[in-house]
Amino acid sequence: MVSARRGDTLVGAGAPAEHCFFVLEGALRVWRPLADGRRQILAFAFPGDWVGVGELREHNASVEAVAPARAERYPLRSLAAAAAADAGAAAALRELLRAGLEAAQGRILVLGHRNTREKLAAFLLEMSGRLAAGGDAVDLPMSRHDIVDYLGMSPETVCRNFTQLAADGVVALPEPNLVRILRRELLEFIGLWP
Amino acid sequence: MVSARRGDTLVGAGAPAEHCFFVLEGALRVWRPLADGRRQILAFAFPGDWVGVGELREHNASVEAVAPARAERYPLRSLAAAAAADAGAAAALRELLRAGLEAAQGRILVLGHRNTREKLAAFLLEMSGRLAAGGDAVDLPMSRHDIVDYLGMSPETVCRNFTQLAADGVVALPEPNLVRILRRELLEFIGLWP
DNA sequence: CGTCTAGTTGAGTTAGCTCAACGTGAGTGG
DNA sequence: CCACTCACGTTGAGCTAACTCAACTAGACG
Question: I need a surface site. Which of A78, A126, A187, B69 has the fewest CB within 10 A?
């Protein structure tokens, strides 16, 4: 079991890959540093998500707490041992990797062919599904800066698009991190895949 | 065994996921249609690559031949059966998914935070590694249009950046599809991850 | 010899970036 | 308790990278 405060590092990029995590509470970001000092956030992890099960020799991404978080920590070699001994465990591990691959492919679609407004709409829909069980009141645990590094845009552009979506009546923003989806059908029209 | 001419479809998006492929010869593209009629190419597959091993109920992407191709076709359920019966096969299948996930994460980095010149440089380095075993003479089997849909840019921009790289002496382009890397260290400086 | 497609180049437009300023709330120290 | 700082979020102004529209060339093919 690991507890982390906001901003704590669970795993540093480049560290030997010994453990993976199962998130119990809070939110994590998985990110890689870029040459120019910026970050690409590969994924956010929320309760019920696994992190780091696909690492080989070393972690190629850092894992940090976006919000206060608790997670269970498992040695990777014990997962591999379980997979070698039990076909059911192997299938479960395979399914985790498959789901991660599918999610990454969804990200490729969004990052490759969407403009900023569409990226943000897709992001909000994703967060609605993952944080609010598809509900309309989404309390974002991550900062604007995190969203910036997740979607590959500038902070000003993220902010302007939030403002624009609110001005258009698609969402309400009572607080910066509190999004209420007012017109889901519009948000889906803007951001839904493909 | 499947043989495909240039442009042939091996799998249509939405078809029930019954088979996967092991490429013997040629080149395939794996892509998803977008709402506006464009395509996002998720991956190219070359000899030695697997395609479609991570599909669940239905193929969420089409697979087409970019160049005349031959591939072996395996029923997905026979792979699952092999994985259930043999821990070694299960580990091999897991490794395929893991490698696919890692590749997809690399794509996220490139699509999220790179400009067109850097995307193209990264693409050429990837193709050098995969098609020419890291050598400098790369014969691209795919059209400019495919590169466009792989990197998420316009055909004019792809073309201009090819021209620019050639003008800068980084590559030579004796023919549109034949790239000779003249100054690899420069190309890596432009396009290398992170 | 005409037609068609892929590739390239030019010209003008715009989406999203950078630079800059400003407001606000949370800490922090006097 | 107040003053100060600092990070975060937001808004404005201007710039530029990349897009769209358009034209042209060269090779493929009937």
Answer: A78
Beta strands in chain A, from DSSP E residues, in sequence order: 2-4, 9-11, 19-33, 39-45, 50-51, 62-75, 137-139, 171-175, 178-181
- At CB < 8 Å, which residues of chain B contact A? 32-35, 38, 40, 42, 54, 56, 60-61, 80, 83-85, 87, 90-91, 93-94, 97-98, 100-102, 104-105, 107-109, 111-113, 151-152, 194
- Burial (0-12, 13-18, 19+ Cβ within 10 Å), B65: buried
Total-model pTM? 0.95
pLDDT in tens, A161-186: 999 999 999 999 999 999 999 999 99
Long-range contacts formed by A6-9: CB under 8 A, 24+ apart: A6/A65, A6/A66, A6/A67, A6/A68, A7/A64, A7/A65, A8/A64, A8/A65, A9/A62, A9/A63, A9/A64
CB A52 within 8 A of CB A100: no
